[in-house]
């Protein structure tokens, strides 16, 4: 992903995120862990929606994590979401250039989850974000913790 962060700039914070649903659409949850390596401080948050999609929850986790930052920050975003990663690095620049429209064959269509992508775009203008992909359900401690928090959050709707 192209960002304003140089390879020599260590992130000030690490943002681990995950989102998921029981059914798609269905009840869904999101979670994030923000870690400040220099101080060791950690912030965990999670939430849920009664009727949503997996992709909306993945995006919401990233948005809520970035919104929790009180000032412009260098962030390493660590997620198992290929949707978020490709959206940030490949799709969003094209959507913006095309007036938030996407190509499907020869047709121009609305961007799915446009409201969330636009909010994420606002936050990316404030923070320097580098995306790192991790495999889901592969034993990554923070990814597993976010998954547990997200699932627990939507349990109240089952």
Structural write-up:
There is one protein chain. With 158 residues, the protein is an alpha/beta fold. The chain has a single domain (13-157), classed as Ribonuclease H-like superfamily/Ribonuclease H (Nucleotidyltransferase, domain 5, 2-Layer Sandwich). It has helices at residues 54-67, 82-97, 114-126, 141-154; strands spanning 13-21, 26-36, 41-52, 74-79, 101-104, 107-110, 128-133. A hairpin with a 2-residue loop joins strand 5 (101-104) and strand 6 (107-110). Helix 1 (54-67) packs parallel to helix 3 (114-126). The radius of gyration is 16 Å and the shape is globular. The N and C termini lie far apart (37 Å). Residues 1-7 have low confidence and may be disordered.
Index terms:
7 strands, two-stranded antiparallel sheet, 36% helix, 4 helices, Nucleotidyltransferase, domain 5, disordered N terminus, 5-stranded mixed beta sheet, 158 residues, alpha/beta
Proportion of strand residues: 25-35%
CATH architecture: 2-Layer Sandwich
Low-confidence stretches: 1-7
* The CATH C-level class name: Alpha Beta
Count of distinct structural domains: 1
End-to-end gap: 37 Å
- The DSSP helix count reads 4
Order of helices and strands: EEEHEHEEHEH
The radius of gyration computed from the alpha-carbon positions, rounded to a whole number of angstroms, is 16 Å
Note the main sheet: 5 strands, mixed
Strand adjacency order, main sheet: 3-2-1-4-7
Helix content: 25-40%
The overall pLDDT, averaged over residues, is 93
Briefly note the CATH topology name: Nucleotidyltransferase, domain 5
CATH H level: which superfamily?
Ribonuclease H-like superfamily/Ribonuclease H
């Amino acid at each position: 992903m192209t960002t304003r962060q140089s390879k020599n700039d260590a992130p000030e914070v690490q943002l681990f995120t995950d989102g998921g649903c029981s059914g798609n659409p269905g009840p869904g949850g999101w979670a994030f862990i923000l870690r400040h390596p220099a101080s060791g401080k950690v912030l965990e948050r999670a939430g849920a929606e009664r009727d949503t999609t997996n992709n909306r929850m993945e995006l919401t986790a990233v948005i809520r994590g970035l919104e929790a930052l009180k000032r412009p920050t260098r962030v390493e975003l660590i997620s198992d979401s290929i949707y978020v990663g490709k959206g940030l690095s490949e799709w969003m620049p094209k959507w913006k250039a095309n007036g938030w429209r996407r190509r499907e064959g020869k047709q121009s269509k609305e961007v799915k989850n446009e409201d969330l992508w636009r909010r994420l775009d606002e936050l990316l203008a404030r923070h320097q974000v580098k995306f790192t992909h991790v495999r889901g359900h592969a034993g990554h401690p923070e990814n597993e913790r976010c998954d547990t928090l997200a699932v627990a959050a939507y349990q109240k709707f089952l």
